Amino acid sequence: MAAIFDRVEERTAFETAGFDQLGAVMKWAATNVTGLLTVIRPHPAEQPEPWREAFAGMPNVLIVERSDPVAWIAGAELLVVSDCTTGLEAALMNRPCLNISPAGQENWSDKLLMKQVNFTVASAQDAIGPLVEFLTNRSGPIARHRSGGVAFPRTVLCAPPG
C-alpha cells in the first residue's frame, strides 16, 4: 500500500511543479507582453479558482474553463503548456508550442510525448528568452522546432494490428 501512496505523492509533485512553472510564465507574459491577450485554459480536472485569483484585475488575461481546446489552439499565436496533451494537439495542428517540463520530474515527464513534439525547457526562467524571441520576430528555437516538423513515433499514429 505504501508504494501506491509514493506514486500518488510523486504524481502530485510532478503536477505541482508544472503548475508552478507554468503559472510563473503566464504571470510574466501577462505583465510583460503588450498587445496580446493571455488565455489560460485550466485542465478540466483543475479548479479554475487559483488561476482566477492569481490573475485577478489583469485585463489582458482571460481564464476559460471547460471548453474545447481546438479553437483556442487554432487561434493562438503561441501555446505554453506543462507536459499537457494540449501540446500534443498543438503539434498535430502545426501550432507553435513551448512545453515546460520541470527538472527533477523526469520519472513522470519521460513517459509522455510532449518533450518529443514541442520545444521544451525545464523552468519558467528558461522559457523567457525563447518566448521573447518568438513573440518579437517569430524566430528562435520555438520557430525552428515547429518548422522542422514533428516526427511522431509510429506507435502513436498506427492502429493496433488486427
What do the pLDDT scores average to? Answer: 84
Task: Kindly report the name of the CATH homologous superfamily.
Answer: Glycogen Phosphorylase B
Strand content: 5-15%
- Uncertain regions: pLDDT < 50 for 5+ in a row? 154-160
CATH topology: Rossmann fold
Order of helices and strands: HEHEHEHEHHEHHH
Counting H and I runs of at least 4 residues, what is the number of helices? 9
Largest sheet: 3 strands, parallel
Give the beta-strand count.
5
Look at the helices and sheets and give the structural class: mainly alpha
Question: Which descriptors apply to this entry?
Answer:
single chain; 162 residues; mainly alpha; Rossmann fold; three-stranded parallel beta sheet; two-stranded parallel ribbon; 5 strands; 10% strand; globular; disordered C terminus
In short:
The chain is mainly alpha-helical. It has helices at residues 2-32, 49-54, 69-75, 85-92, 106-109, 114-117, 124-137, 141-147, 154-157, and strands at 38-40, 61-63, 79-81, 97-100, 119-121.
Word description of this protein:
- This protein has 9 helices and 5 strands.
- The radius of gyration is 16 Å and the shape is globular.
- Helix 1 runs parallel beside helix 7 (124-137).
- The N and C termini lie far apart (37 Å).
- The strands form 2 sheets. Strands 3-4-5 form a 3-stranded parallel β-sheet, sandwiched between helices.
- The protein has one domain: Rossmann fold.
- Strand 1, helix 2 and strand 2 form a beta-alpha-beta unit.
- It is mainly alpha-helical and 162 residues long.
Secondary structure layout plus pairing:
Layout: H1 2-32, E1 38-40, H2 49-54, E2 61-63, H3 69-75, E3 79-81, H4 85-92, E4 97-100, H5 106-109, H6 114-117, E5 119-121, H7 124-137, H8 141-147, H9 154-157
Parallel strand pairs: 1-2, 3-4, 4-5
Helix pairs in contact: 1-7
